[in-house]
Specification:
By secondary structure, this protein is α+β, with helices and mostly antiparallel strands. The protein has a two-stranded antiparallel sheet with strand order 1-2. About 20% of the residues have low confidence.
Length: about 90
């Protein structure tokens, strides 16, 4: 049932009895080229900087909008007379 071994491949059993064909000449694996480090990519660095800057700026603006909302609510309540900044005497 199993095919005969050839010079190119060997039948090996993997986990759970699955079959896999592997290259018999494992020396070819070291011929795979690896990417050489070419230094930082200027375009990527610019994009990363812009992205981080926009995100930090957005958070800063949301913080200031929240402070502005609180101040506006305070003065609205003060104008309507619901609150007072003068301490009442008892």
């Amino acid at each position: 049932m199993l095919p005969k071994e050839s010079s190119q491949s060997v039948l090996t059993y993997i986990t759970f009895g699955a079959l896999k064909w592997e290259n018999e000449k494992m020396g070819a694996a070291h011929k795979i080229g690896h990417a050489a480090y070419q230094g930082p990519s200027v375009i990527k660095e610019i994009i990363y900087g812009i992205t981080l800057g926009l995100m930090a700026g957005g958070l800063w603006k949301m913080h200031h909008w929240n402070n502005q909302r609180r101040t506006r609510e305070f003065y609205d309540l003060l104008e309507r007379g619901e609150i007072s900044v003068v301490v009442e005497d008892e």
